[in-house]
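queue> pop job 88
queue> type: inverse folding (structure -> sequence)
queue> payload:
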């Protein structure tokens, strides 16, 4: 067990067999050794800094029907909303004042937000805050669409691959294409975005092999960012009675990803904070180095309901800002209010600021 963890630490690599062995046999002692090594690795790459992103959830309309997701098209109970361009700009204004130098514009796959409208939003944010970074998280779109938004000034794109096992992907995403999603990530990279892949831990019927597929896929893709959180059932979906992912399993996976990808930007996700009051802090102690507090107006917060029990739905942006900094400090880390680009990316001078 130690040999595998040491190999992960020293070589940032492990074989399929080693990863399966590790996940199937991890005892408490080895697990804390793994977490120590992940922490050590993050200290060498990013130090004790935790990057902040201001999350703007600007539409919960979605044309997709992912089985796990509370804003899936088929959920007639969802109370739908869209923010106007002005409301989005106001969120950006508030975020900038609170020290968020990256905005994450996230939404369901909503055809209302055409390329023209997205370009307008991106252009206006960049005119007002030229130094701030924009991350998009709008799902699958065409190459041309991604390219137009990039040219308008978007810097990064989050598109979790969700699961790297084709059969599981097909079960969870009726009518969607496994290949297209991966193709989108490659298109985004080709265009010049910093890309974020990612997956859920503890999906119904997910096996150790499936998780190892995810680990090997992100190792090969080497995304600049990787979003990982526990699956949490949502009451208005077909998976409502399933078990959710655990804190322990999610933290273990975060630690392994930190070792496989020492330079990756790794969020301690809201989902992790939602299954345990100090889930995000524990994630940060296991190698995570990003938090994404909410900037959306409070009157729409609870409507962006991907899973049950989501935290921070009642808190003003300023309250989340204060809360998260306190949490990070108490965990022994420092908030960093720069753009927070991937360090490898900065080294290779891929940024044209
Ligand atoms: N539990 C946990 N995470 C979820 N997501 C969507 N639904 C759920 C759920 N029920 C995640 C997906 C998506 C991201 C925005 O939120 O991985 O990519
Ligand atoms: Fe939102 Fe704590 S981060 S209230």
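queue> result:
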């Amino acid at each position: 067990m130690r040999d595998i963890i040491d190999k992960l630490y020293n070589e940032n690599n492990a074989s399929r067999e080693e990863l399966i062995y590790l996940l199937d046999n991890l005892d408490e002692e080895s697990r804390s050794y793994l977490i120590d090594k992940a922490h050590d690795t993050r200290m060498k790459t990013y130090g004790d800094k935790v990057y902040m992103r201001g999350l703007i959830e600007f539409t919960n309309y979605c044309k997709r029907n992912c089985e796990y997701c509370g804003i899936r098209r088929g959920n007639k109970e969802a109370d739908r909303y869209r923010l106007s361009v002005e409301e989005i700009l106001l969120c950006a204004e508030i975020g900038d004042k609170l020290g968020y130098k990256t905005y994450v514009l996230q939404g369901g796959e909503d055809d209302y937000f055409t390329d023209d409208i997205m370009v307008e939003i991106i252009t206006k944010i960049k005119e007002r805050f030229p130094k701030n970074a924009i991350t998009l998280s709008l799902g699958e779109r065409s190459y041309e669409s991604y390219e137009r938004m990039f040219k308008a000034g978007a810097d990064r794109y989050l598109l979790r691959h969700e699961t790297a096992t084709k059969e599981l992907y097909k079960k969870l995403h009726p009518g969607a294409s496994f290949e297209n999603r991966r193709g989108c990530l490659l298109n985004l990279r080709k265009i010049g975005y910093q890309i974020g892949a990612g997956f859920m831990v503890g999906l119904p019927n997910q096996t150790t092999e499936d998780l190892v597929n995810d680990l090997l896929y992100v190792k090969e893709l080497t995304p600049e960012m990787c979003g990982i959180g526990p699956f949490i059932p949502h009451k208005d979906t077909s998976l409502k009675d399933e078990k959710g992912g655990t804190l322990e399993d999610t933290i273990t996976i975060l630690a392994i990803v930190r070792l496989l990808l020492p330079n990756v930007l790794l969020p301690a996700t809201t989902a992790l904070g939602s299954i345990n009051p100090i889930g995000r802090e524990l994630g940060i102690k296991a190698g995570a180095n990003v938090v994404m507090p909410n900037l959306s107006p409070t009157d729409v917060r609870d409507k962006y309901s991907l899973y049950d029990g989501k935290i921070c739905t009642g808190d003003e942006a300023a309250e989340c800002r204060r809360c998260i900094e306190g949490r990070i400090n108490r965990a022994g880390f420092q908030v960093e209010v720069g753009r927070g680009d991937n360090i490898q990316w900065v080294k290779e001078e891929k940024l044209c600021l």
